[in-house]
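User: Run a structure prediction on this.
Assistant: Running it now.
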Amino acid sequence: MSSSLVETVDIKAPVAVTWALWSDVTQWPRFLSHVQRVDPIDERRFAWQLSLPGADKRFVAELTEVVPEDRIAWKTTEGVHHVGVGTFHRLDDTSSRVALQVAYDPQGFIEHFGALTNLDSALAGYGLGEFRKLAELTAASGGPRTV
């Protein structure tokens, strides 16, 4: 992998809420604008469809580690090549921090440009901001501890 990004976001929601939203990858299109759909293949593999500037991408990702309310890691097995991990940190009873680390192999001019100019990090940061809004809304509405 030749490019990587690390982004974090502090959220006014307990880890149970942030974990429940993040660990259900079929929910990702709700907060990541470039994710068009995520379809389960089995308990550990998911087919992803992305729409990025200048390119549509399809790939299969497999969960490689799941530690409830702590970390979730994945790697792609078909299509684009990347690995990632999301970690969940309790700040207090009502707030948490989510950290995202992704390493990937950019393909083509647009992806190389995005990596060189940190547009990939900006997109990830925007997505985490949207995730924060969803998690805070879920927590404020007294939403279930699992989504």
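The chain has a mean pLDDT of 86.
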